[in-house]
Structures are given as C-alpha cells and as structure tokens.
C-alpha cells in the first residue's frame, strides 16, 4: 500500500449522497434555471435502470459520474474557506479511491484540477495554497503527480511574489535545513530536465545541459551517466548502461502503465540509434559512407539502413550515403579540429582556383570554364 500524508476527510452517506453534495456546492451561485440544467445530467447518471448493476457494484459508472463533476468545476466556489477546503478534500478522496494515482486518468483529472485552482482569483490565494497542500498530501509519497502539484504551488508563489508562502521563512527550520530543502528541489528539477531531454524525440544536442551547475551537481546519479552516454558514446555503451541499471528507463518515465512504459523505452532506444549515426556522419563530411559502416554503427542489418537515412543522398547501386551536412552531437576539441581541417581544405582549394584563374588570364583562356573544372575537384571536401 502506498504511503500518503494525512488529510482529514469527514464524509458521511452513500456515494450518491456525496455526489449530490458536491453538485449542490457547484451550482449554489447559479440561477434556478441554470441549476436545474446542471443537476439533471448527474441525476440521470445516478439513476439505475432496470437490469443495470447497482452503482455500488459498477465502478466504471462511478468513475464516469465523478469525471463529470471534475469537468464541471470552473473555480474554487464562493463560501467560507472551510467549505472550499472540505469540497476539494472530498474531491481528492473520491479521485484516488476511484483511480490509481499512477493511472493516466488520475493524471488527466489532476491536471484539470490544477489548472482550475491555479487560475482562481488572487483574493483566494491563501485557500489555493491550502487545498493544493492537501492535494499534495493526498498523493502517495512516491507519486510523480506530487511534482506537478508542487510546480503549481511554486508557480503561484512566484506569480504573486510570495515565495514565503512556501512557509520556509516562517517555520522553525534551521538555515541548514532550509538550504538542504531548496537543494533537494533544485536536484529534482535537474533530474527532470535530464530525463526530459533524453526522452523528447526532437532533442539531440546535450552540450548545454553540461553548462548547468544543477545538472553537473548530479554527476553521481544514474541519469547523468546516461546523459554522458547520449553525448559521447555508442550503442554498446548504451546497452552496457541498460544492463548495469535494470529498470532505470522505466523508472524515469512519467506514467507506469506497462504498455506506455514499453512504448517510451522503445522511443529512447530509437532516439539513441540516431546519435552514433550523427557522429559517423560528422567524421565523414563530403564522403560516400558505405551501408556496411552505417549498419555497424547503429547495429542493424544492411537491408534496414535506408529506413534510417531515407532523407539522405543515397545510392542504391553503390550502397553508399553521401554526407553533405551533418550535425555534431557535441562541439568540443575533436569537432573544432574537424572544422579546422575543412576550412584549411577550402582555403587550399580556393588558392588553387585563384592560381588557375591567374594562369588562364595570362594565357587568354576561358576563365569561367577553368574555374568550374577546378572547383569540381574540391567542392565536396567540406560543405
């Protein structure tokens, strides 16, 4: 059983009665006509038709009804702060009894609540902090949703210029403990940034992450080791990391459903396959790279190479890929040296063109044809 922090919920009655209580709270400021229109769909959903399972035995119907209520919440409501707090505590109680906190449904409904709560007027800031804190405490301590809740609390504090609302400055906490707490937050964000960068399919450059002190400070974490593999190494190192850190990829994805987890882990592997290809391309600018070398780099059969580089300049007859313009995974000493070689090659080639042009002028030849012939010899050295 997941461990949560204590949140008191004093609720009496059946599910139907508690749902009616929630609905009555939501419609209390509406006109009679609006109130009737809002209540009707819920009452119809609560009604058990002949031959239908009772509501207490039909969890799917209870989930559907509860989701209707969540979607109907447009604000914190008007009333005493205790009433508002009690309403949301009852919401949390039903949310995490009907849906597992690790389920996509719970994440979706929680995100909906967070948007509603965070957008409430500034004159309700104090109760916003209270009900968000209760939501945080209602979640299992190992739940990834806690980070979303805390992000919302932090965003509200920053927007209202009230960072002290996090209660660090007013509580009886030593300076050392405050620093440790804030460092814990920084570390959590750094790990989240690393995981996101590795997971997002469109991100292939990781140099900038190593310029962040918070990221470098986590050099002993397994994700930092994986980041270094993504930056510099090949598939063999990646697989070695997987072997030495079993289950780590699944641990750092946002949801823990098996099918979703497998899908995301596959995307990590597929993304990594492109990185050795990028390194190989950068080392072979302006040359024809054989399918065999490409297959060795990304550890696939030669027949599958074209699936990976379908947008490149391929030659099926010679089984080669012509490298025109690669992107380096990182830009360090080795890449600067490669760039220097390219520039020197261009300099040498241009000098040759100038010499030939001067010679052609002296001899009264066709300068444009001569330039074209000479340029063709070196134009593909570096692009």
TrEMBL record:
Any Pfam family hit: eIF3m_C_helix
Tree of life domain: Eukaryota
Residue ranges of domain eIF3 subunit M C-terminal helix in the record: 329-357
Annotated Gene Ontology cellular component terms: eukaryotic translation initiation factor 3 complex
One GO process term, biological-process aspect: cytoplasmic translational initiation
InterPro entries according to UniProt: COPS7/eIF3m, eIF3m_C_helix
Name of protein: PCI domain-containing protein
Organism: Lentinula detonsa
